[in-house]
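The material for today's practical consists of a large collection of protein records. There is nothing in a record beyond a sequence line and a structure line. Backbone structure tokens are a discrete shorthand for how the chain folds in space. Nothing more is needed to start thinking about how sequence determines fold. As an example, a complete record with its sequence and its structure tokens follows.
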Amino acid sequence: MGISKEAIISGSMVLDYIPQRHPIVMVDAFYGIDNALSESGLTVSPDNIFVENGLLTEGGLIEHVAQSGALRIGYEHITKGELVPLGFLGAISDLSILRLPLINTSLRTKLIVENDVFGITLFRAEVIDNNEVIMTCKMKVALEKKGEFNG
């Protein structure tokens, strides 16, 4: 399928692919998947729950990356005709936040899957604001298996 310049999923349509709901929705665009790489986005609105003093907070950036992972996983499952699974953040490492984005900024986030074994996905992330990388990290996400947590 590949990565598109324009969003292939946007606005409220992302809710079909992620378990999060307002006011904690931190993705509003999905640009596609190309092998290990996927790209998502967020326009930082002034009323975002993670905005303080006109900037998206560190917690907001981390939640955006986590939900970018959820959006990728949801997209992969829906395109296979499967239900969107719940995911649980297992670990964050190598976190580097270079600066916080201003409100009305459109972020574009790249996720690169490094490993995906037994329902645990490790990915690298880069959050980009106007062609400048403003955050990098690695995240580990575990997917709920039917009957394992609450099913």
User: Anything to note?
Assistant: The radius of gyration is 15 Å.
